[in-house]
Amino acid sequence: MQRLDRITQFVGSVLPACCLAIVLIVVTINVFARTVLGMPFHIAHDISMLAFAGVVWLGLTGVAATHQLFGVAFFVSKLPPALKKPAYVLSHSIVILVSCFVINAAYHQIMTARFSKFLALGWPKWIVSAMLLFSFVVIALIQIKQIIELIKAPLGKEGEPSC
Fold it and tell me: How close are the terminal C-alpha atoms of the chain, in Å?
């Protein structure tokens, strides 16, 4: 579990932060090049689009790792103590199911979009779908880990899982 925690920390926090830095740098350079130098930075759009996709898709894994997906805790906190643990397990199971559908869709997108390319970069567009597929595989693994932790954890004073 420690290895998965380190991987999700890197994938969910470090990589999105690096991607956001790339977006900020590229957009700043593009604005500078257009306004001061009077010439466009042709690949700025493609690079910033790829990096922003990294912020979103990889950032979702960080959100999942910190138990912040969909605000489930707010609604589960309103349940009686006996139903909280099953409700958390159900919510994690639903996220796993949704992740499986997203993984399937991303896989099919990769298979059908392998010939289209970003105009300026010439890179294949399936890179964004591959990033989506990877992030949802990690999200599903995180949810499985959290279910295991929930099952193993005793309930706390107020019926909340102690994990």
Answer: 13
Contacts of 71 (CB under 8 A, 6+ apart): none
Q: Supply the angle between the helices 126-152 and 44-65 in degrees, to the nearest 10.
A: 10
Residue 160 lies in a domain: no
Count of domains observed in the chain = 1
- pLDDT, tens digit (0-9, with 9 covering 90-100), for 79-105: 888 888 899 899 999 999 999 999 999
Cβ atoms of 64 and 142 within 8 Å: the answer is: yes
- CA-wise closest residue to 109 among 70, 33, 57: 57
Q: How many angstroms separate the CA atoms of 157 and 54, rounded?
A: 40
